[in-house]
């Protein structure tokens, strides 16, 4: 039996910082840096808008594949091998895109980078959550996502700060060079975490047969799928939409992504706190509502006002959706741990892949990027509805005990 233990504030900070750094590397320097880069790559003539959407789709498809791999290899022993391996793949694939203008090569590299992102984005927070649970600190789990918020600011600075002296494929160099030391430090710190290969129940027994899909998790899965499709459109195309709507030289051409970054930085702390104070389900309802208003603002008020509201409201909420949903999932099924997290991220990844693909089809058919944001509005409304069908974990477990 693995006994619960305590952790010093220094240990807690070190573990959460390592997780935050790892997510910064794969999720912002890997995925989201593409958003502020895309208008520059199109302006350089390396890509067209439909090609840029296609590359984004390949990256998100890789993310889905990575999450599926994490479902299969979800135990702590697997994570200790795969986490450093895929951090290495992230660095290699990012270095590779600095060397080519070939569309097929870029797409393949971004797909593999997405695989690395999917595996690490599942495994690092799941490993840390298990470590925190054993130390009775699970309420702090959401703080690991602060790395994504900080990473958005870092990615914005790396792209805009080098915009005047780099061109085409070379625009990836700052991201690649920044990833190397951060991946090494974060990966080594997480590799040394003391976590049993499988978490025991309260009686010290290892449970492996609890269901992954049931009446409690289905509405949560559906809600999370709507969130993935709803947020990915502004998080992929908001700077490009600004370029289409605003005059050259407008501060929002780079400013939209900066606003997203600034509002994302405190988001993990804020929603972690609100979930603890209000309860994760009420906080998730509020989260969806604010995010829905943000995407709707871009549709209803084209131009600077809509762009600012979308950037601020989506930036301040999307991480909250992730951390609240992941924590709810583990509370409903405490013995699933990393496997449940992987399954949820796989669904999230699938809907994120669908978003850029639908946008490409819409643009190829003559639609506008602004009208494509309506897809996100509908998806977030869908997600919000299903949050109301998610049972409270304590009520669900009480019902389960009564029926046993």
UniProtKB/TrEMBL annotation:
| Keyword terms | Membrane, Transmembrane, Transmembrane helix
Please report the name of this protein according to its UniProt entry: YbfB/YjiJ family MFS transporter
Pfam families reported in the protein's UniProt record: MFS_4
According to the UniProt entry, its GO molecular function terms are:
transmembrane transporter activity
Which SUPFAM superfamilies does the record associate with it? Answer: MFS general substrate transporter
Give the superkingdom in one word: Bacteria
Membrane topology summary: Multi-pass membrane protein
Location (main, coarse): membrane
UniProt KW Transmembrane helix keyword: yes
Biological classification of the source: Bacteria, Pseudomonadati, Pseudomonadota, Gammaproteobacteria, Pseudomonadales
Q: Organism, per UniProt?
A: Marinobacter adhaerens
